[in-house]
Amino acid sequence: MFWKKWLSGGEPKPTEEHSIREEDLRAVVVTDVGRVRTNNEDAARFVRPSKILIRIQKGFLALVADGMGGHAAGEIASQMAVETIAKAYYQQEDTPESSLFVAFAKANRAIWQTANKNVMQKGMGTTCTAVAICQNRLYMAHVGDSRLYLFKDGQLIQLSTDHTYVQELIQQGVISAEEAEKHPDRNMLTRAMGTHNKVEVDVQAISTLFENNDRIMLCSDGLYDYFSLAEIATFLTIPALNEAAQQMVDAAKQRGGHDNITVLLVERVNPEEFQPAKPTENIDIP
User: Fold this and answer.
1) pTM
2) Residue 284 burial (C-beta neighbours within 10 Å; 0-12, 13-18, 19+)
3) Residue 228: DSSP 8-state
């Protein structure tokens, strides 16, 4: 997974976990290559900017990307997405929505240009789902079929909409959501980053507030393919954030693990209940 290599300079283990404490937020990422693939084309990152003023204005940033393309090109595309977006978002002196849009456009163009310079990377692309957390407000940017969920008051809400062929069929009333789960083309993307010079990005401010004891979950399809909403909600009731993430990944592997599996969880904790976490590395944005 890219961010881990970027911080430590070492090769990733099959399963990696990284926890971050920042004020009343906790975050954890768990990623696994799965039981079929030989390399991990997923990438994820939770960003805490080093400067307090930027942190107040632009908040924190969580991203998950799922690459595609073969010959390790998918891994390159997803890594480029999270790296470019993480840097470009904080470089923009604009609203979170506008900053996310510009960051996604820059990442898409960078992946497209790289793919066209190397025949081994031709056609590579990636999904990417990002959420900026500004105080108790959430701002989402999304391309592809990785997902963003909000777990609030015991209810799991899917905030992103898949850019897939079967999702279009659902919206057209051709098939039901239940039929889509077993459709042979359920993972066929209609939109991805890096496959064209320009990409349409879903960007929006989420109307529901992110409050104490709420949790955010970003994940690749290698995780949610194996669970119903009710099952994911049950996992998210596990008190320890790292245990909730790890148990979901382990269960996805037990049910097949046909793809790389990545989950990023963020929770807002009541400051009075906050327990000190182990010291960890933080990503600094200039």
Assistant:
1) 0.86
2) exposed
3) -
